[in-house]
């Protein structure tokens, strides 16, 4: 069953958990989401915390759209905009690759399936994500989001790679998945 934009109109912490087990495809390439991080407008680590700007505008638009940004001036990161208030998004940290593995391997320059999409920068590179997708609707091409079966036990822990509000347990992952960016403690 394809997920529509209305799915994203729920509290961002709930959304981050519910995205575990969903299949994400971009132009037919992707896999099962196994790790996410939640960010909301009251979160000092969120790009939306200081209010709207040209960079974070998709976070303040309608839910069910992509928010893509570059980190360290090098890596693209893909977020799915959601929440019951403007300014929330879920960062996709890792997927288990299932579709277009050869394409992902070519984009990443490696063959190890575990390393193709384990981390937000790797995931974006493997799926061909660039800033051109920021603001794009998630229920239209090139995106396809397909509901999955119950994902299994969800691990929770602190977010990775941030300095503000890093202690918040707003990172979620499929417990025991070999495709996580980092194991949970």
For the structure shown, list the relevant keywords:
8 strands; globular; 3-methyladenine DNA Glycosylase, Chain A; 4 helices; alpha+beta
What this model shows, in words?
The chain is an alpha+beta fold. It has a single domain, classed as 3-methyladenine DNA Glycosylase, Chain A (Roll). The protein contains four helices and eight strands. Strands 1, 2, 3, 4, 5, 6, 7 and 8 form an eight-stranded antiparallel sheet that branches. Helix 2 crosses helix 4. The longest helix is centred in the middle third of the chain and has 8 residues. The termini are far apart.
pLDDT averaged over residues: 92
Unreliable stretches (pLDDT < 50, length at least 5) are none
Structural class, please? alpha+beta
> Between the first and last Cα atoms, what is the distance in angstroms?
33 Å
Work out the strand percent.
25-35%
Helix fraction, binned, reads 10-25%
Q: Give the CATH level 1 class.
A: Alpha Beta
Task: Report the order of strands and helices.
Answer: HEEEEEHHHEEE
From the 3D coordinates, which CATH architecture would you assign? Roll
> Main sheet, how many strands, which sense, barrel?
8 strands, antiparallel
The total count of helices amounts to 4
State the CATH topology. Answer: 3-methyladenine DNA Glycosylase, Chain A
Shape: globular
């Amino acid at each position: 069953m394809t997920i529509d934009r209305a799915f994203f109109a729920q509290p961002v912490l709930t959304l981050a958990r519910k995205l575990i087990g969903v299949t994400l495809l971009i132009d037919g390439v992707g896999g099962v989401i196994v790790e996410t991080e939640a960010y909301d407008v009251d979160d000092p680590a969120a790009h939306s915390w200081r209010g709207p700007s040209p960079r974070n505008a998709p976070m303040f638009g309608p839910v069910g759209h992509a928010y893509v940004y570059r980190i360290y001036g090098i890596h693209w990161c893909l977020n799915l905009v959601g929440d019951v208030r403007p300014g929330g998004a879920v960062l996709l940290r890792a997927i288990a690759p299932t579709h277009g593995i050869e394409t992902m391997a070519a984009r990443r320059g490696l063959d190890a399936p575990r390393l193709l999409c384990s981390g937000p920068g790797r995931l974006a590179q493997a799926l061909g994500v660039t800033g051109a997708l920021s603001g794009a609707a998630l229920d239209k091409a090139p995106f396809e989001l397909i509901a999955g079966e119950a994902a299994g036990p969800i691990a929770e822990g602190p977010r990775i790679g941030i300095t503000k509000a890093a202690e918040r347990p707003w990172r979620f992952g499929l417990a025991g998945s070999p495709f996580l960016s980092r194991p949970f403690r």
